[in-house]
Structure formats: C-alpha cells, structure tokens
From TrEMBL:
Species the sequence originates in: Luteimonas flava
Taxonomic placement: Bacteria, Pseudomonadati, Pseudomonadota, Gammaproteobacteria, Lysobacterales
Leader peptide range in chain numbering: 1-21
GO MF annotation list: hydrolase activity
A Pfam entry, by short name: Abhydrolase_6
UniProt keyword terms in alphabetical order: Hydrolase, Signal
Protein name: Alpha/beta hydrolase
Domain AB hydrolase-1, first and last residues per copy: 68-323
Amino acid sequence: MTRIAPLVLSLAALSAASVSASPYGGELQGFDYPHPRQAHALTSQGQSLSMAYMDVRPERAGNGRTAVLLHGKNFCGPTWDDTITVLVEAGWRVIAPDQIGFCGSTKPRGYQFSFAQLAANTHDLLDSLGVERVVLIGHSMGGMLATRYALQYPDAVEQLVLVNPIGLEDWQAEGVPYASIDTMVEGERKTTFDSIKAYQLKFYYDGQWAPRYDRWVDMLAGMYAGPDREIVAWNQAQTSEMVFTQPVVHEFPKLRVPTLLMIGGKDRTAPGANRAPADVAARLGDYPALGRRAADAIPDTQLVEFPALGHSPQVEAPDEFHAALLRGLTPR
C-alpha cells in the first residue's frame, strides 16, 4: 500500500508557525464541499432546522447498498472525501451528513444535545431519502453516535463500522472531573487554527504532521474565526458535555449487528484528560488496549488494528485504511 510520508514537525516549530484560518460562516458558508451539499429540513425540539448532507451515487449501476458516514466532533462530512470516492467507485451509494450543531448544519440555541436525538435526526434524514438499511460507518464521536443508532434502530443497520471511536472508556467513571458547559465554552472561545493543529498533532498523529491535514484544521478553525463564532463555540461546548456524560461503552454487549472495529494504535484521544489528575490522565486513551477490550465486549466483532497509525487512519494512510475497509465490509 502506498502511504504518503508525513512532514515531521515539533510542537515548538508548530507554535512558531502561527496560521490564521479562513473565516467561514457558522454553517460553513464559504467552504468548498467535495460533492454537492444538500439540505434536509426537519423540526426538532420545536425548532425548524436544516441538516446538511452529501448524497453521492455511482455513475453506473451500483451494488444496491448504502453506506452512511458519521463524522467525529472535530471533523465534518467533507473529511470523508477519500472514503466517499473509494466506496462510490466500489458501487456504493454514500450519504455523509453533518450533524445538527456541526459544520454545515444549523447551530441551534437552547437545544438539548444527545446521541439519541442525533440518531433520531439521522434516521429522519434517511427516511426522507427512502433508505431503509445501511452500513453505518462512524469515526471518533461518530463512532459513539453510530453505536447509539445501532442500538436504537437495529433493524436499519446491516453492519456497524467503528473507526477509532471515542467512548471506548467512561472518562467520568475513570476519575476525570466534570466541567460545565459554561466552563467549556470559555475554552472554546479561545480556539484557533494553531490550537486545533497542536491538539491534533499531539493526540491524533503521534507528533507527525502532513501539510494536507491543514485543510481540515482550516475547515474547523474558520467557523471560530467567522461571524457566528459565538454560537459555534456554544454548540461545541454543549456537544463536549454530551460526549462526556453519555457513554456508550457499557452497552457494547447489547449490540446485535455485525461490527467492524478499526483501530489506529498511536491514537491517544481522551476527552477531559487535560483536567484529570496526572495518574488518571496517564492511563487514558490507550487505544490498543481499548480496542481489544471493545472487541471482546461486542458480540459479533472483527478487529482490524493499524499499529503505526493514529486517530484518523482514513486521513493519515488512505490506501491502507480503505483496502482494509473494503475487505471488512460483509457481503450481503
């Protein structure tokens, strides 16, 4: 498999090379999606909302199957660009939504964020498109959402694919102290291109950075640099609280769909570790151990490990990742 060699940067060098993000609107106005961006209108919690999504189909007759790609908290539907191309070329219809509160979708005020609600929103989108059964592929926070969706709508899921999902451990139960939304929004307001990049360099890519990753940092940072920065920060704080307080790991044994678990072993993502006691933080985010523990807990699981890769194997080593993904997708 061909793997693009990353440019290795130290944290010190990164700090010295300050970059300003392109300012984007709160619904990613100004950012170019790799495929036509569509909008699904829905009413949720008494509000009229719009859910952005891409719906990409093979040019010729496909295999009659649909894959739904669920983005992580620090990602968007467009981050799946390479995966969409590979799956469409293999005959799949691919739907990649932006969740409410994220990216190209509405940033609502006074919204009660929950994985159950986001799953219901996604199910509403698929129902509007006439899609009954899907292969559900969730990355990072999208893995937590995909798990909730599969528990909530088991008959609508052919197969569950979890790509470096967060939530393989219960951080609060492990000893990470709670932080309120009011506390977290203060940190969100300080978010910049450099702070996002530094975080991802440390936790996602094991200290190795490739310039092609910058596009995805700019995508996120641009919303904080734009005119809607306040509601962007507020929704991000709300969804951080959702991630922390709504673990799915305890429900893994209840999953009743075939599951492909794909783990980059260099990942050390652990939300809240920065506010945890040092001894607690040191044991969090051990993805090789967490992945194997999750594989033991989920009844029908195939575990694929990428020991040299980090949090986003589909971005870091697309050829290696997609070859493994296509092998792991179960035939109908």
